[in-house]
Design goal:
2 domains; Cytochrome c domain-containing protein; elongated; 13 helices; mainly alpha; signal
Length: 347
């Protein structure tokens, strides 16, 4: 399947967007900023930022988004955590909830964070380089809050990748698909017993969602494995979400986009992809309808109309080469390429 020329450029922008927070932190305790290397590392803005970047590998998987997005930015870190005495008590690390969570003796329902593996074990394995003692030293000498602590910073970078849950739910909605398109539901009690995944449909489902909880009821374990590859978490095995977008996620999304778009095109009466055309319409027989449908599908999937250049590239580089084999393949290809567009992948 051919890829339009805009895809490599926008994919590069996506990589930048998803790795902008994954900077190489300056070792806590000071030292000069790393030399300018063309943007492959990010110098911390201040002492608080050193700590944020040091904790990020252990904490941002659960706290990059949601109701406690402490690691979304330095502003979020300082506003939501550093200068909130519920979490950090200046000069008193042992009575600071942040330290208690890291060492595993916090009060309440969650005595330890991150879940699943002790923080000192993450340090010992090299996954995290910031030690608990360094966190304590920072709290003992906590810098005063910045003058604009409560003010929103319009320069903050706020783009993030879609989570695995958002990908599954969004695609089902945009492509006119429902759960019953992927699993056998002939038994009225199918949700409470072992069910069969319809073959060849590339079902993707979280391991801790019901039905299919803990893979007990699902006949195809790859359904859960695909969700994991997309970066999905699983509360049953204490695995947090992966907020990056690596090769496994990209490979799974490619397969998912092609299989699900095919399912949408083949689904009888479904107008999610084929709104203004049928498979009998081609660029030779009904060029106006094909162009209208292409633009409508772009708008549906990406939330904005295509420019003339984008529509032309999508038509000439994706649709036409595949339409030479069949109109069905042409529309599957257009649909799948839009799902892999950075505008679809990010929020």
């Amino acid at each position: 399947m051919r890829t339009p020329r805009w895809m490599p450029r926008t994919a590069a922008l996506l990589c930048l967007a998803l790795t902008v927070g994954a900077c190489t932190e300056k070792p806590p305790g000071g030292g000069p900023n790393p030399p300018d290397d063309g943007g492959t590392t990010c110098a911390p803005e201040n002492r608080n930022d050193e700590i944020r970047l040091g904790l990020a590998p252990a904490c941002e998987g659960c706290h990059l988004t949601g109701n406690k997005p402490f690691f979304a930015s330095l502003t979020a870190f300082e506003n939501g955590l550093v200068y909130d005495e519920r979490y950090v008590k200046p000069g008193d690390p042992d009575n600071s909830l942040l330290v208690q969570l890291l060492v595993g003796n916090a009060p309440g329902s969650y005595p330890q964070m991150p879940l699943g593996q002790r923080y000192d074990e993450l340090v010992a394995s090299g996954h995290v380089t910031l030690t608990t003692e360094q966190v304590k030293a920072w709290i003992r000498e906590l810098p005063p809050p910045p003058g604009r602590l409560e003010a929103a910073d319009p320069k903050e970078f706020t783009v993030r990748r879609l989570s695995a849950e958002e990908m599954v739910v969004s695609l089902m909605d945009q492509l006119g698909l429902v759960l019953e398109d992927f699993v056998s539901t002939t038994d009225p009690n199918w949700r409470n017993k072992a069910y069969v995944v319809n073959g060849g449909k590339l079902f993707v489902w979280p391991g801790d969602w019901s039905p299919g909880i803990s893979t007990e009821y699902v006949s195809d374990s790859r359904s859960v494995e695909r969700f994991d590859a997309l970066g999905g978490g699983n509360s049953l095995v204490y695995r947090k979400k992966d907020v990056g977008f690596g090769p496994s996620a990209a490979q799974t999304l490619v397969q998912m986009s092609q299989a699900w778009c095919a399912r949408a095109v083949d689904k009888r009466g479904n107008t999610a992809v084929l709104r203004y055309v049928t498979l009998a319409d081609t660029s030779a027989k009904n060029p106006d309808a094909v162009q209208k449908n292409l633009r409508a599908l772009y708008l549906r999937m990406l939330g904005q109309p295509p420019s003339e250049a984008e529509a032309k590239q999508l038509f000439e580089q994706v649709y036409l080469p595949l339409e030479a084999q069949s109109a069905r393949l042409g529309w599957i290809g257009v649909c799948a390429s839009l799902i892999r567009h950075p505008l679809w992948l990010t929020y």
